[in-house]
Write a structure and sequence with these properties.
The complex is a heterotrimer of chains A (about 300), B (about 260) and C (about 375). Chain A is mostly helical. Chain A has 12 helices and 4 strands; from the N terminus they run H-E-E-H-E-E-H-H-H-H-H-H-H-H-H-H. In chain A, the strands form 2 sheets. Chain A has a two-stranded antiparallel sheet. In chain A, strands 3-4 form a two-stranded antiparallel ribbon. Chain A is globular. Chain B has about 260 residues and is mainly alpha-helical. Chain B is globular. Chain C has 2 domains: about 240 residues, 3-Layer(aba) Sandwich (Rossmann fold); about 120 residues, OB fold (Dihydrolipoamide Acetyltransferase, E2P) (Beta Barrel). Chain C is built from 8 helices and 20 strands. In chain C, strands 6-7-8-3-9-10 form a 6-stranded mixed beta sheet, sandwiched between helices. The two termini of chain C are about 40 Å apart. The chains are: A mainly alpha (about 300), B mainly alpha (about 260), C alpha+beta (about 375). At the A-B interface, helix 1, helix 3, helix 4, helix 5 and helix 7 of A face helix 1, helix 3, helix 4, helix 5 and helix 6 of B.
Chain lengths: ~300, ~260, ~375
């Protein structure tokens, strides 16, 4: 019966309380975003400055209409980034499932096991990423073992490349998948699974029809938490991926450091931003208008 | 629920090992005597001693701490106010702001970094403001920290029985007293968790720092990145180990603190 | 605190409250006397909690007026009103000890610490929890929490104490115990108590007067006895205890009695307590409490208001027996104290007679 009451008497007080942060984010987040959206419609001068005319050329380049006719470079980067995000999300889901079930089935040690998953997240990403360079360097036992299994060329490091990139990405994003998935697995009503078993369903059928629907919300939240940041990830492809696996993030960085093409770099950023907004919008629609629970 | 079976246990242990492999490797190699490559040539602690004589590392450490501490302080204050304000008061555009609060959380670092860089560059070009340096980095860090803090505070407030604040008002507390005596102590664990997360995000951040830094405002992640790009040196492993240790200690402290609070409840 | 019956503790006129297009209060007027134990009774969603929250200042009126102790109060913020509330979930502050919870109100008033200490001790002994001062709310039982909530409110010596389902979260046995204690406490202190409850027995046991609410209106405001014996509407008749409703048409109107044709036959009834205009042939409804029916094995010659019935169901209930009786297409329920049975009661299928005394037929307004 108690209805939570919002103090709508208002006046200056809400402005005083929310105002500073709203102002801050408006100036240092939304205004800069508007800035790059604006810049993305300008051209680059010969000296690397932003100049007129206003143009859609930056976006045309992104979808493949380059100076020299059709060019697959940037559409390729776009698709590759999406594939990296989707692949990372899929691998993380695959790895998170056993982890989530394992933790949920532990007795008193649940919280410790969960904390152990989160701890790597609290340590620096850069450190965890370059460590894979050590692990996959030519002399390391891991590399030798993999060479023996005919992975990679003998005497050479296993990075940069897709294998190193995948390992680094999954290792980094796994906690983001485990947490929401575990929250769902914890709440599973096992009587449904038992009922299905009772009705003669096989192990796979039980999982498919009685368990999976119950953990789907957690999996979806996890997929969003991994897919969106992974698609725009810059450090891991930069350190473990190399030139052949340049992603959106690397392309942006290149425009701002080496090429000094700010309008085009801005355009790439705007596309990356649009992808994220689209993902969030899609999730909210599928999830009945609810936000992802982060806390 | 039945305890995990052998197969599940094995898979899980393997995954834990996978998660910790990079951390373990860095710690081990910080004690490796070899100057180049990863061949093990003997145990040493000399790389730690070398750090103390490395002015670059010391400056970077100082910058990192100043950056993290200052930005966390500002972001925790503003984020807490925002989380509280969004939950408890109505203002025009509130719904819209609530729905866009998630964007900074999910936006790729690099997009945020270059957006800020462009903004700073243009403002510098036209107004002469925002010379790149520690200040612009602090401004940038606060920006990505605020939403995280606000979201944690909101979650904490959502778990709070609204009758508690009503009871305080009923017992004669005005709005400020209600906040000070009831709301604040009850959301304090949330504030602490928010501050902790903000601090870690700042320590962890490389991309935004990299693009918004100026000469002389190098931080530890930037230092590590440039060393990795140039070819790793073993003292970086020692530095990384110290950073891992610091995060570990902080996480442990926070976990214990929250457990103590939980027992209290 | 004066217990004079002439003073009004709370005066509400035409109170209106909407939440969007849901009407919580549809123009409620109410006068609560100083020193009385007053209950707002009704099903959930009837507006009783909203009314209580409006008196407390935790919710605002959309229309109408509110006076507390003779002073217009609608614009006074909650923390300045001379009322205190015992919340449904108790709303004890989890981070403060029991002692600090109770002292909260006095601290807000900046009372001297020595005096606070003394009054807290008094309040705690008043509700018999003197040994709990150092405990946290998470460490005490539901009944103890209820007492802490009571002490925390009463220590401020409010003109009016508001209780929102004060015993709702407790088990039956504890509830009965605390009902009596609450009643004694109120009589001793003489403070005006306004209690919201959906439990009719609780309201009847504790209150001087009860307002039965339904769909944002007051259906009837009366003493517990009058409410039970002379319900004015179908809703009140059926919400308080169980009741047989008998519909019929008026066939004769006398000065102090009327005759009504009902599906059970022609019945004579008194016409007092009726505010509705009666017309020949007009439809009327009577309420008859099950225990007011007298069951007879045989019909006495010429006794009026006796109808032949067949026993359909018999439910033995310990102290009493419930009967479901059929007469044509209609059923009646009757309750008979087992101690009053001379022959061990009736069996299902038996053809017997039920006597509906004219005084037992309560003419309803609707």
């Amino acid at each position: 019966m108690t209805k939570p009451q919002k103090n709508s008497a208002a006046g200056w007080r809400p402005l005083l309380i929310s105002g500073p942060a709203v102002l801050w984010l408006t100036v240092f987040f939304f205004l800069p975003l508007a800035t790059i959206v604006g810049i993305s419609f300008f051209s680059r001068s010969d000296y690397g400055e932003i100049t007129r005319p206003l143009t859609f050329e930056n976006y045309q380049r992104l979808v493949g209409f380059g100076f020299l006719g059709f060019d697959l470079l940037y559409p390729g980067i776009l698709l590759r980034s999406l594939a990296l995000g989707a692949g990372t999300a899929a691998l993380c889901l695959l790895a998170a499932l056993p982890l989530a079930f394992f933790i949920a089935r532990l007795g008193r040690c649940k919280n410790i096991a969960l904390t152990l998953v989160v701890i790597p997240f609290w340590t620096n990403l850069l450190i965890r990423t370059y460590a894979w360079q050590i692990i996959l360097s030519p002399e390391s036992p891991v590399t030798r073992a993999l060479h023996w299994l005919d992975v990679g060329a003998a005497g050479e490091a296993l990075y940069p490349g897709w294998l190193a990139l995948s390992l680094g990405m999954v290792c980094d994003y796994l906690p983001f998948m485990v947490l929401p998935l575990y929250a769902s697995v914890e709440k599973i009503d096992w009587s449904l699974a038992e009922a299905a078993m009772d009705l003669g369903a096989g192990r796979f059928q039980v999982f498919r029809h009685a368990v999976w629907p119950q953990i789907l919300p957690g999996a979806l939240a996890g997929i969003i938490l991994v897919l969106l940041p992974a698609t725009g990830q810059f450090v891991i492809p930069d350190l473990l991926g190399g030139a052949k696996t340049a992603m959106l993030g690397n392309a942006v960085q290149q425009q701002f450091t080496q090429n000094r093409d700010w309008p085009f770099g801005s355009a790439i950023s705007v596309v990356a931003l649009a992808l994220v907004l689209f993902g969030l919008w899609l999730y909210r629609r599928k999830n009945g208008g609810k936000e992802i629970e982060l806390a | 629920m039945k305890p995990p079976g052998k197969l599940l246990r094995g898979t899980a242990l393997l995954l834990y090992f996978f998660l910790y492999a990079p951390i373990i490797v860095v710690v081990i190699f910080s004690f490796n005597a070899a100057r180049y490559g990863v061949g093990w040539t003997g145990f040493t602690t000399k790389w730690y001693a070398a750090l103390a004589d490395n002015p670059l590392a010391l400056t970077a450490a100082k910058n990192t701490l100043v950056l993290a501490a200052t930005s966390t302080l500002i972001a925790t204050a503003l984020g807490t106010m925002l989380g509280y304000g969004l939950k408890r008061f109505y203002f025009p555009g509130q719904k819209f702001f609530q729905s866009v609060l998630h964007i900074p959380v999910f936006i790729p670092d690099i997009v945020m970094a270059i957006a800020l860089l462009m903004f700073y560059e243009l403002a510098h070009h036209w107004l002469g403001w925002f010379e790149l340096g520690l200040t612009t980095m602090i401004l940038a860090h606060v920006t990505f920290q605020i939403p995280f803090v606000a979201i944690i505070i909101q979650a904490r407030l959502a778990g709070l029985d609204p009758a508690l604040e009503e009871a305080a008002r009923d017992l004669g507390a005005n709005e400020w007293q209600t906040f000070r005596r009831i709301t604040l102590p009850l959301i304090f664990p949330g504030i602490l968790a928010g501050a902790m997360l903000a601090f870690t995000l700042s320590l962890d951040d490389f991309v935004v720092s990299f693009f918004t830094s100026g000469p002389g405002s190098q931080t530890l992640p930037i230092l590590i990145y440039s060393s990795v790009k140039r070819g790793l040196t073993p003292d970086i492993n020692a530095l990384a180990t110290l950073m891992i240790l610091a995060s570990l200690a902080a996480t442990l402290a926070l976990t214990l603190l929250q457990r103590k609070k939980a027992v209290h409840k | 605190m004066s217990a004079s019956q002439n003073l009004l503790a709370v005066e509400i006129k035409e109170a209106k409250r909407n939440f969007g297009n849901v009407t919580a209060l549809a123009g409620v007027s109410l006068e609560i006397r100083a020193g009385e134990f007053f209950s707002l009774l009704g099903p959930s969603g009837c507006g009783k909690t909203t009314l209580l929250r409006i008196i407390a200042g935790l919710d605002a009126l959309n229309g109408g007026t509110l006076k507390i102790g003779g002073v217009a109060a609608a614009e006074i913020p909650a923390h300045q009103r001379p009322v205190n509330t015992v919340f449904q979930s108790y709303a004890l502050f989890p981070h403060l000890t029991v002692g600090d919870n109770i002292a909260f109100g006095l601290r807000m008033k900046k009372i001297a610490p020595a005096q606070i200490k003394e009054r807290v001790a008094q309040a705690m002994s008043l509700v018999k929890i003197s040994d709990l001062a150092a405990r946290f709310p998470g460490e005490i039982s539901g009944g103890q929490k209820q007492r802490v909530a009571l002490a925390r409110a009463l220590i401020n010596e409010p003109q009016v104490l508001l209780l929102d389902e004060p015993l709702g979260a407790l088990d039956l046995k504890l509830r009965k115990e605390l009902q009596v204690e609450l009643l004694q406490l109120q009589r001793r202190l003489g403070t005006t108590f306004i209690c919201v409850t959906h439990d009719q027995e609780e309201a009847l046991v504790m209150s001087h007067r009860v307002a039965v609410m339904n769909a944002g209106r007051i259906e009837q405001l009366d003493s517990p006895k009058n409410l039970y014996e002379h319900p004015r509407t179908r809703f009140v008749a059926q919400f308080l205890g169980s009741c047989n409703l008998i519909a019929g048409n008026v066939t004769a109107i006398n000065a102090d009695a009327l005759v009504v044709a009902t599906p059970f036959g022609v019945l004579g009834a008194g016409r007092r307590n009726s505010s509705r205009p009666l017309t020949m042939g007009g439809a009327v409804t009577f309420a008859v409490r099950p225990e007011k029916l007298t069951l007879l094995a045989a019909r006495l010659a010429d006794q009026p208001n006796v109808i032949p019935v067949r026993v359909e169901d018999v439910i033995y209930n310990g102290a009493e027996t419930q009967y479901r009786l059929r007469c044509g297409d209609h059923t009646l329920s009757a309750v008979v104290l087992n101690a009053s049975h001379t022959n061990g009661g009736f069996k299902p299928g038996e053809e017997i007679f039920a006597h509906l005394a004219a005084e037992a037929l309560v003419l309803l307004d609707d």
